[in-house]
Amino acid sequence: MEKERIYGKKQTASANAAAGGHSNDTKKQPAGICFDRYRRKWMLGMLTLAGAGMIVSGCGKKEEETVPLPEPQTIVEEETMPDEETIVEEETAAEPEEEDTHEGEAKSFLTGEWIDETLAKQRPVSCMIGNTDSALPQYGIGQAQVIYEAPVEGGLTRLMGIFQDYKQIEKLGSVRSSRLYYAYYSMGFDAIYLHYGQASYAQGFLESGQIDDLNGLDYAVDKAVIYRDTAKKAPHNAYATGKGLVAGVELKKYEQEYTDDFQGYYQFAEDEKPVELSGPTCQDAVIVQPGYLINQPYFEYNPKDGLYYRYQYGDRHIDGNDSGQLAVTNILVQNSSVRTLDDKGYLDIATTGEGSGWYITGGKAIDLTWKRADNFSPTQYFDSEGNEIVLNQGKTWVCITDNSHLDRVHIYADAAQMQ
Questions:
Q1: Spatial distance between the Cα atoms of 310 and 317, rounded to a whole number of angstroms
Q2: Which residues make beta-bridge pairs with 339?
């Protein structure tokens, strides 16, 4: 009898009858369909259709149905499927970060941070800035990398900012007169010294040629560097600009780069390895009061950014250029011998020799000893065990205090203790 292939299997008429059909039927009935594990879902669908009469599985006659074969499926063996961990690893895998070689950069002598190598070689400018209530707000002071504050006559203080990138300063001042000890502090940084006049005790040194200074009393310097702000009254109306400072340095033909053997002033922490103060003299330092009588300044530590924010005259200490509050990473309190020179109250402050003090950073303070061999050398700072102090990278404020009035200096563990 003629054989017919049904879904890939041959079946005879006798076999069909044995399966429950009639041997004299001329219509072919599908029977004995072979299943495999990959077609079970498809066959369940076929059985559902058979219940609806589309496929005859019992006795009787019916037109032969042509059932389309299912589309071939690509079967993936379970063992070849990637597991979940593999997928996550493939999705999250990233190229290793390239090490920053700081090409074209060098570390600043003033902050220890990476800056443009050309700028790092540039000698800074230091500037005397008035700090009386009537002189506020000061301008440009927030762009200084190092700020010195020391007493002057009448219980006031004056500031000296040291600027690495002075060419970019929009407005700087008010520019005020020099005191001899400030000129000596500037010398240690090999800075070009800007001031407008001086106390008589400083004049001889400033005119000796031992320091590169820009003195506003010099008519040529005044014309090149200084301008008057008509909104301010003298003597708080003299200001400089970055463009003026460049003109003044070129006018005086001062060297604009450090000498090759310049070693810098401070020791700074390595990258990503900040200093965390400890030791026998370590104490919490959230509030620091240097003890100046008139402006009554203090610094408050912010643990979120690791900076000490400056206040004076009962308010935030701001830069008039951007209204930003002054803030520094490090505070050095340098106790020094102070004496009065005359009935006008001019002071002499010892800038060489040695003395005591405190180093404050990261919410902590330790005792220090400072030493300076001569006025042409940097001041060195040592901890209680004789190790040279390492500063955290960033800005530094140096408070020169009278060692005969150390009871005015206060370091508090929290703001609630502040007097």
A1: 6
A2: 348
The H or E element spanning position 86 is helix 84-92
H or E element, residue 6: strand 4-6
Identify the helix (H) or strand (E) that includes residue 45.
Answer: helix 40-51
Residue reference for tokens 């498809």? 42
HEC string for 315-348: EECEECCCCCECEECEEEEEEECEEECCCCCCEE
Burial profile 71-98: b = 16 or more Cβ within 10 angstroms, e = fewer: eeeeeeeeeeeeeeeeeeeeeeeeeeee
In this structure, are residues 299 and 367 in contact, taking their beta carbons and an 8 Å threshold?
no
The SS3 of residue 378 is: coil
User: In this structure, what token pair is assigned to residue 69?
Assistant: 């074969």
Query: Any alpha helices (H) in 167-273, and if so which ranges?
Result: 180-187, 200-206, 219-225, 242-252
Beta partners for residue 240, in sequence order: 172, 226
| Amino acid found at 44 | L
C-alpha torsion sign, points 13, 17, 22, 23: positive
Please give the Cα distance from 89 to 108 (Å, whole number): 41
Strand 9-11 and strand 4-6: the pairing is antiparallel
**Site of tokens 């004995």:** 32
Quick: pLDDT tens for 57-92. Answer: 444 444 444 445 555 555 444 444 445 444 445 555
> pLDDT (tens digit, 9 = 90+) per residue, 219-251?
999 999 999 999 999 999 999 999 999 999 999
Distance of CA 247 to the CA centre of its chain: 32
Model pLDDT for residues 280-304, shown as the tens digit of each residue? 999 999 999 999 999 999 999 999 9
